[in-house]
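Appendix C reproduces, verbatim, an entry submitted by the partner laboratory led by Prof. M.T., so that reviewers can inspect both the input and the predicted structure.
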Amino acid sequence: MSPRLRPLRAREEMPEFVRDALGQRGLRDKYDARPPYQRNDYLLWINKVKRPETKQKHLEQMLGELERGGVYMGMRWNG
C-alpha cells in the first residue's frame, strides 16, 4: 500500500455494546453508509474514554446523529 493511501489512524474494533445498540435502534445501515473515516472516528471516540458513563454519552450522541442525519461529531455534514 502506498504511504498516501495508508489510514492516518489504526482501525478501531467495534465493541459488542456498540454493535448491539446499532442493531436495537435499527441504525446499522446508516452507520455502514458513513465514510470509513467517520465510522473509525466514532469508534475511537467511544473506545478511548475510560468511564462507562462517558462511553454511554458518546454512544448516545453517535446514535442520535445517525438518526437525525446531516450531523457528524456535532458538526453539519452533507453526506
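The mean pLDDT is 91. Additional entries are available on request from the coordinating office.
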